[in-house]
Amino acid sequence: MNNRLKILRAERDWSQADLAEQLGVSRQTVNALETGRYDPSLPLAFKIARVFDQPIESIFSDTGAGS
């Protein structure tokens, strides 16, 4: 799954730790999300969408590879 987390975070001048604190996760989780090593749970995806005030679909997109 592709995502725009790094871009959205950079637009707000937030560190990974800043975003992690807002989401209630570790900085390592934010890093794993940004690099595509981890797909968020549905509740976490909704929380991310709320933090950035955007629909989930504008943040996350399916890569289409084998899904």
Major sheet summary line: 2 strands, antiparallel
Uncertain runs are none
> Which class do the helix and strand fractions yield?
mainly alpha
C-alpha-based Rg, rounded: 11 Å
Distance from first to last alpha carbon: 9 Å
Please estimate the helix content. Answer: 55-70%
- On the 0 to 100 scale, the average pLDDT is 93
Number of strands: 2
Shape: globular
How many H/I helices?
Answer: 5
| Fraction of residues in β-strands | 5-15%
N-to-C SSE string, H for helix and E for strand = EHHHHHE
The strands making up the biggest β-sheet line up spatially as 1-2
Could you explain how this protein is built, in words?
With 67 residues, the protein is mostly helical. The chain contains 5 helices and 2 strands. It has helices at 5-11, 16-23, 27-34, 42-52, 56-59; strands at residues 2-3, 60-61. Strands 1-2 form a two-stranded antiparallel ribbon. Helix 2 (16-23) crosses helix 3. The radius of gyration is 11 Å and the shape is globular.
